[in-house]
Input
Amino acid sequence: MKVIVIGLGRMGTGLSLNLEKKGHKVTVIDNDIDAFKRLGENFKGSKVLGFGFDQDTLISAKIEQADAVVSCTESDEINAVIARVAKNIYRVPKVIARLYDTRKADIYHRLGIQTISTTSWGIDRATEVLTYQQLDSVYDIGNGNVNLVRIEVPPMLVGRRVREITVVGEFHVVSISRNGKTFIPTSGAVLETEDILYMSVMSSSTNKLKSILDL
Output
């Protein structure tokens, strides 16, 4: 996946290194040339000096080829502008904006912009969102007959209970990640927007799970 990270503060730097470590192609943008030093000598991604809201800078970063853009400058307003440009003009599939004032989150979401906050959780959450696939296999257990998979709750299942996506002997929810915390749910736990589910599933039941999740 080709990802552009704009702003090399603590979050931008950590996210860039995290994504590169996972094998993704990363391009970073910052208007301070010294900021690139934070990435260290082993960083292999591309570096573009400039302002992330500048069209020439974005073109230099090859935004038209990007699979994802994460704007994590120190300004909520700049992050929102960059996110909207990436989403609405360049049609980047995945766009995330760093948000300091969480009271604005609902406004951003109505604009179709994914937001993250809090540096330590934000790095993990952004990585999770960017690398998420419809049914992302995390770990094969034993001889591969059982898989641990990761999935973001589809809109149609928000408000439903864990028991409704559980089939004894075929698949069940092992844990849920929500707002930076992971917990083991009860069968009556209600699914919420942006929940990340970790589910164990028999390989032979994968298509059945996809059908239930409407994938």
In short: Helices lie at 10-21, 55-60, 76-89, 105-110, 119-131, 206-213.
